[in-house]
Design a protein that fits this description.
The chain contains eight helices and no strands. The protein is mainly alpha-helical and 251 residues long. Keywords: Membrane, Transmembrane, Transmembrane helix.
């Protein structure tokens, strides 16, 4: 469930069907809700709608928090790679030239990784390539550290280590989604809410059954879009990484 464009119409149809099922049941059994229980049923309707609103608020907050984290890590990785590039001047030769030949390829791999979208082959290939380059960069740094052990070399090693660490943080953040159990509860309460509203809606207001499914579907799709960084309309901007890429390539 990571394609918002498909999720919206599917969700709308399901919720609309649930609402019309409630309306159909009301028409077939007019006395299903006795007059003396109308007030209690109205309270139930309000409670279910309130619980749905609460769940939507919580899941939207979760999705937005994950989106913000992904954005912050994008800036953090761009800064870390940029600092590593600048500190390559501290390395002795031939490690300086070797590292400056590897880093442009590394930043290219990282940009491709987050631009792969739903192309799983490109996603995995970019991840594999970045991992290989990390090993090569670390091996080159180890050779330089063996040749010269001082505070400047320690600064470079620290920066390179942060660059490697933040790449894993970004990968983990990309794969961190709202739990399936939370989505199951959201869908359940959405179906229950539209069914109960359909059951309570007066016959003359049957067309109003379209509004609630549409509103809920749009809200759920927004949450899904925020929680689907590799698909949908809402993506983390890669401008910081792209600026770093241009700076390293000298463009």
């Amino acid at each position: 469930m990571n394609r918002p464009a498909l999720f919206l119409p599917l969700c709308f149809v399901l919720l609309l069907a649930s609402g019309w099922a409630g309306a159909f049941l009301r028409e077939r059994k007019p006395g299903l809700i006795p007059q003396e229980h109308k007030e209690h049923f109205s309270s139930l309707e309000t409670s279910v709608l309130g619980m749905l609103a609460l769940l939507l608020g919580f899941t939207f907050s979760m999705a937005l928090s994950r989106y913000d984290t992904r954005h912050q890590l994008e800036v953090e990785e761009a800064n870390s790679i940029g600092t590593t590039w600048l500190r390559t001047s501290l390395l002795p030769e031939p490690q300086r030239s070797q590292t400056r030949a590897l880093l442009p390829n590394y930043v290219d791999a990282r940009v491709r990784f987050f631009s792969a979208g739903t192309d799983q082959t490109a996603y995995e290939e970019a991840l594999r390539k970045a991992g290989e380059l990390q090993q090569q960069l670390w091996q080159t740094a180890s050779e330089a550290a063996d040749a010269r052990r001082d505070a400047l070399m320690a600064n470079y090693i620290t920066t390179l280590n942060e660059t490697i660490d933040v790449s894993e943080k970004r990968t983990a953040a990309l794969e961190n989604h709202i739990p399936h159990a939370a989505w199951a509860m959201l869908i359940f309460f959405s179906l229950a809410a539209t069914f109960i509203v359909g059951l309570a809606m007066p016959s003359r207001a049957a067309m109003m059954l379209v509004i609630l499914p549409m509103v809920i579907s749009c809200a759920l799709t927004l949450v899904l879009d925020l929680d689907s960084p590799r698909s949908g309309l809402i993506r983390v901007d890669q401008s910081s990484m792209e600026r770093t890429q241009r700076a390293i390539h000298g463009k």
